[in-house]
Design brief:
heterodimer; A: about 260 residues; alpha/beta; Rossmann fold; six-stranded mixed beta sheet; four-stranded antiparallel beta sheet; 10 helices; 10 strands; B: about 375 residues; mainly alpha; ABC transporter involved in vitamin B12 uptake, BtuC; two-stranded antiparallel sheet; 4 strands; about 75% helix; globular; binds adenosine-5'-triphosphate; binds magnesium ion; Urea transport system ATP-binding protein (chain A)
Chain lengths: ~260, ~375
């Protein structure tokens, strides 16, 4: 399976951090959704982010991917790329892929076409007009559709998929986009326990070649990821470390786990 | 045998084999292109096969509207850009053609002035304004038919799409655009004939515009343009670019996060659509013999949307069917009961959005599916 998930690779020896946030603040009408947030993700890391509703997890992803501009603070990709200077399309092309909290696929296109659009490659108008799929690209698309378990649905409209299948399709789209850094917002929402565990395994698999940041509420899922955990609360980091450690933290129990 | 093989392998062939409804449409258009002029020119008057000239002109007009509807469906049906100002591009194409036809009048105008169109003489102008230069030339004018709408669409689209104006807001500013042009073209000092517009055309490329042959040629050209535009639009929406358009329509921000420059994709299709609308206007003017600022009217642009909605949005052939069907109804009702037409149109629109969200094309498809379902068990029975 590992051969399936390939990317340009991040193993450049000098690279210090894949993603670096420092003192990031963002308020909406005076309400600080993100408050002096700092975060450092190492190349190749798998990081889980948890936190109560409204903690600012999705807003953080909006800031990283250029959807929302922070009021202040640093957001850097691969040590020295200042992400606040770019928009969504630039950032996607720099190598950051994102799965939305609400699964977002193109419902009126087939599973295959969705993956085809996401497939890494030139994004210009001219190329899209004259695009002809090579047989390697076709193979790659089929490979990833199989990986995310949608082989039987290949030529069905994405709109006809179940909630969980849409999540998987979106993850498949992320994989073929070939980003170095994947931001995955609540991938297991709406999935059965079994699917949730499969998703965790898939993300671990993806992590062999990509840096992955994943937001989830499902504690079994987080446990299965077996990675470093960051707890977000009211827009900043409340605790960080192994799951055993943070879940013993009294503040974390109070604001999140104890509810 | 050989020919069919070449056809099947060619790009257009593959496109049309995958688009049955479109192929039928092209066949009908082709038949009309050939038969209508023949029935007008060769059949003796009084023969039941004779098509009178006024019908030829009327059909030609419908075809121009069909081309305009195609242009709108390309952006609205496939990219979700609901332009309520597409009449502006049509009118601009029409004005460009009108300017060329005005220059062709020469000294045959009422004032007999070889250098100035009548309305300029009437306004006591002594010199041709610089922006009228070049329109004596047919080729320059045809170039401008495409360039003028394209330039407006490019500037307007660049500003709007870059600032991410979408949905209702975009519709409102397109409507404002056509309204602003309406007011501007009403002014005499703009140099486009004020509220009378441009008219009294004599001939085109030396052929008398009133003659049956010229009218038939214009009709055939209109049919040909609709066919070519249909194939072009089908090629665009069948390409990967077309799928990106659909992605933008259904999930714009997802498309951005995949790395596509949404504004470039929108701008390209908007400009192509404006050019098609401009060509439609340019074909329309010599057939109806006049272009005036009324063509910029906001209602005109809204009507285009209604044609497409009633025909079936996002199908291309639906746009053509809708434009012809609604305008046929319009011709009939404005003749028989002129007061009720606008109410009829409104009612048609409401009914089609409420009950026929996929338009005429959607209803036909539903009936076909139902028949296929009903036939399915019988055919199985026959097999066993
Ligand atoms: N565009 C916006 N305008 C105003 N307020 C916003 C906006 N985006 C987010 N917020 C607010 O910022 C806060 C953080 O929201 P965010 O969606 O980041 O939370 P979250 O941690 O992802 O929560 P959940 O677990 O429910 O997904 C919320 O209170 C939300 O209402
Ligand atoms: Mg969230």
């Amino acid at each position: 399976m590992s051969a399936v998930v390939k990317s340009p690779g991040f193993h450049s020896s000098e690279l210090q951090s894949m993603l670096y946030l420092n003192g990031v603040t963002k308020s909406f009408d005076g309400f600080k959704a993100i408050n002096n947030l700092s975060l450092d993700i190492a190349p190749g890391e798998l990081r889980a982010i948890i936190g109560p509703n409204g903690a600012g997890k999705s807003t953080m992803m909006d800031i990283i991917t250029g959807k929302t501009r922070p009021d202040s603070g640093e957001v850097r990709f691969r040590d020295n790329i200042d992400l606040t200077q770019y928009d969504e399309a630039d950032i996607a092309n720099l190598g950051i892929g994102r799965k939305f909290q609400k699964p977002t696929v193109i419902e009126t296109l087939t599973v295959w076409e969705n993956v085809e659009l996401a497939l890494a490659g030139n994004r210009s108008v001219i190329r899209a007009l004259w695009h002809k799929l090579s047989s390697e690209q076709g193979d790659r698309i089929n490979e990833v559709i199989k990986l995310v378990g949608l082989k039987a649905k290949t030529s069905e409209l994405a709109g006809s998929l179940s909630h969980g299948q849409k999540q998987w399709l979106e993850i498949g789209m992320l994989i073929v986009q070939g980003p170095e850094l994947l931001l995955v917002d609540e991938p297991a929402a709406g999935m059965t326990d079994q699917e949730t565990m499969e998703t965790a395994a898939l993300l671990k698999e993806i992590n062999r070649e990509h840096t992955v940041v994943v937001v989830e509420h499902d504690m079994d899922f987080i446990k299965a990821l077996d990675s470093k955990v960051t707890v977000l609360h009211e827009g900043s980091v409340l605790a960080e470390g192994r799951l055993e450690v943070v879940s013993a933290n009294p503040r974390v129990i109070e604001v999140y786990l104890g509810r | 045998m050989l020919n069919t093989k070449i056809f099947e392998r060619s790009a257009i062939g593959r496109l049309l084999l995958a688009d049955k409804a479109g192929s039928y449409l092209l066949m009908v258009l082709f038949a009309a292109m050939v038969l209508v002029p023949l029935c007008n020119l060769l059949m003796p008057e009084g023969s039941f096969l004779h098509i009178p000239t006024y019908i030829v002109v009327l059909l030609g007009k419908y075809l121009c509207y069909a081309l305009l509807a195609l242009a709108l469906d390309l952006i609205w049906g496939y990219c979700g850009i609901l332009s309520l100002g597409h009449g502006a591009f049509f009118a601009l194409g029409g004005y460009v053609m009108g300017m060329h036809l005005m220059r062709q009048i020469g000294e045959r105008g009422v004032y007999g002035n070889a250098d100035l169109p009548d309305f300029m003489v009437f306004l006591n102008w002594t010199e041709l304004p610089w922006y009228w230069y070049g329109f004596d030339s047919f080729f320059f004018s045809m170039f401008m038919v495409a360039l003028v709408p394209a330039a407006l669409a490019f500037v307007f689209g660049w500003l709007a799409f870059r600032s991410r104006v979408t949905g209702v807001y975009l519709s409102i500013i397109t409507q404002a655009m056509t309204y602003a042009l309406l007011l501007a073209f009403f002014r005499n000092d703009m140099g486009f004939g004020g509220n009378n517009g441009l008219t009294d055309f004599k001939d085109i490329l030396g052929f008398n515009l009133q003659s049956d042959v010229t009218r038939c040629v214009l009709f055939a050209l209109s049919a040909l343009s609709v066919m070519l535009a249909y194939i072009l639009c089908r090629a665009i929406v069948s390409s990967k670019y077309g799928r990106v358009l659909v992605a933008i329509r259904d999930a714009e921000s997802r498309t951005r996060f995949m790395g596509y420059r949404v504004e470039h994709f929108k701008l390209f299709v908007f400009v192509v659509s404006a050019i098609l609308a401009g060509i439609a206007g340019a074909l329309y003017v010599p057939q109806v013999g006049i272009i005036n600022p009324g063509e910029f009217g906001p209602i005109n642009s809204i009507e285009i949307v209604i044609w497409v909605a009633i025909g079936g949005r996002g199908t291309l052939f639906g746009a053509v069917i809708g434009a012809v069907a609604v305008n046929y109804a319009k011709t009939y009702f404005t003749g028989a009961f002129p007061e009720v037409w606008l109410f009829m149109l409104g009612a048609l629109f409401v009914i089609s959005t409420l009950y026929l969200p996929k338009g005429i094309v959607g209803v036909v498809k539903q009936l076909q599916d139902r028949r296929a379902e009903r036939n399915a068990p019988t055919s199985q029975g026959a097999q066993s």
